[in-house]
């Protein structure tokens, strides 16, 4: 059981990071501003609908992975 939960945790965290990187790369390709992609976490930048969708999916899946990790460590 512990192996399954650990695998799910790693899968969710990796998927979240991948989705965030996809959103950042889509923004950077669209605007040709690779430095501005780093500001995504600091201030509001104009994202397209597709970039925003991947960003929100990435954050949500990453948070779910972290919650699974916390539950795995405490139970």
Question: How would you portray this structure in words?
Answer:
Helices cover 81% and strands 0% of the residues. With 75 residues, the chain is mainly α. The longest helix is centred in the N-terminal third of the chain and has 30 residues, at 2-31. The chain is elongated. 19% of the residues are buried.
Give a topology summary.
Blueprint: H1 2-31, H2 34-38, H3 49-74
Helix pairs in contact: 1-3
Form type: elongated
Radius of gyration: 15 Å
Strand content: under 5%
Oligomerization:
single chain
End-to-end separation? 12 Å
Total beta strand runs: 0
Helix content: over 70%
Structural class: mainly alpha
Mean pLDDT: 89
The helix count comes to 3
Compact summary:
The protein is an all-alpha fold. 81% of the residues lie in helices and 0% in strands. Helix 1 runs antiparallel to helix 3 (49-74).
Could you name the key traits of this structure?
75 residues, mainly alpha, 3 helices
